[in-house]
Amino acid sequence: MRKTVRTIAIAGGSAFLLLAAPLSAHAAEPDDVAFSFAVTASGVTNTISNASGVDLLCTTSLASTVDGVLPPVDEVIQNGPTLYASGQSAPGNSTQEVTDVPAGSYVVLASCALTEGDATTVWISDYPGLDEYLTPLPWTSHIVQQASPVVTIAGDPTPPNPVELPDLGSIIGSGSAN
């Protein structure tokens, strides 16, 4: 009987170590994630460098600015972004593109998250005043040194030429379709 109890205890302890091992193998470090933003003709590309060793859930988002001025963090958080791209970022470099962005000025925000069991770690692009929002949250937060920039998406300088359509009445005739 004593041998059976000892075997169950050792097996239970080994199973616990096997379950805990992946969590400690993926310990998140502050410098595991970096962002690099670039403006394209109709949007923004974010190159995400993921050195965590595991897939992360990442989001790149745009929030409107007035006259290219960085809005207070309160406004950005309360209003939320309306233009974004989101998805998995594998270890290494990956990109997210926010496309079809209307002409205007925007602040670019990026974040990545790793959830393992009850533990969550997030990496967020630096933004003035962000610390006071992150401090009370029940997860580990890392501010990525790449600041959230204000970018301008230029509009199309020349409108497209209108297409001349033929008179539909001359094509299908007039009258009823009885």
Task: Describe what you observe in this structure.
The chain has 4 helices and 9 strands, in the order H-E-E-E-H-E-E-E-E-H-E-E-H. A hairpin with a 2-residue loop joins strand 6 and strand 7 (119-126). Helix content is 22%, strand content 40%. The protein is of the alpha+beta class and 178 residues long. It is globular and about 45 Å long. Mean pLDDT is 77; it is low at 1-25, 157-163 and 165-172. It has helices at residues 2-25, 73-79, 131-134, 168-172; strands spanning 33-40, 43-50, 56-64, 83-89, 92-98, 104-116, 119-126, 140-147, 150-153.
Short description:
This protein has helices at 2-25, 73-79, 131-134, 168-172; strands at 33-40, 43-50, 56-64, 83-89, 92-98, 104-116, 119-126, 140-147, 150-153.
Question: How do the strands and helices of this protein lay out in sequence?
Answer:
Elements: H1 2-25, E1 33-40, E2 43-50, E3 56-64, H2 73-79, E4 83-89, E5 92-98, E6 104-116, E7 119-126, H3 131-134, E8 140-147, E9 150-153, H4 168-172
Parallel strand pairs: 7-8
Antiparallel strand pairs: 1-2, 2-5, 3-4, 3-6, 6-7, 6-9
Class from secondary-structure proportions: alpha+beta
Which range does the strand content fall in? 35-45%
3D shape? globular
Distance between the termini: 95 Å
Report helical residue fraction. Answer: 10-25%
- What string gives the helices and strands in order? HEEEHEEEEHEEH
Low-confidence stretches: 1-25, 157-163, 165-172
How many distinct helices?
A: 4
Major sheet: size, sense and barrel closure?
Answer: 6 strands, mixed
Oligomer: single chain
Radius of gyration in whole Å, from Cα?
26 Å
Q: Mean of residue pLDDT? A: 77
The number of strands is 9
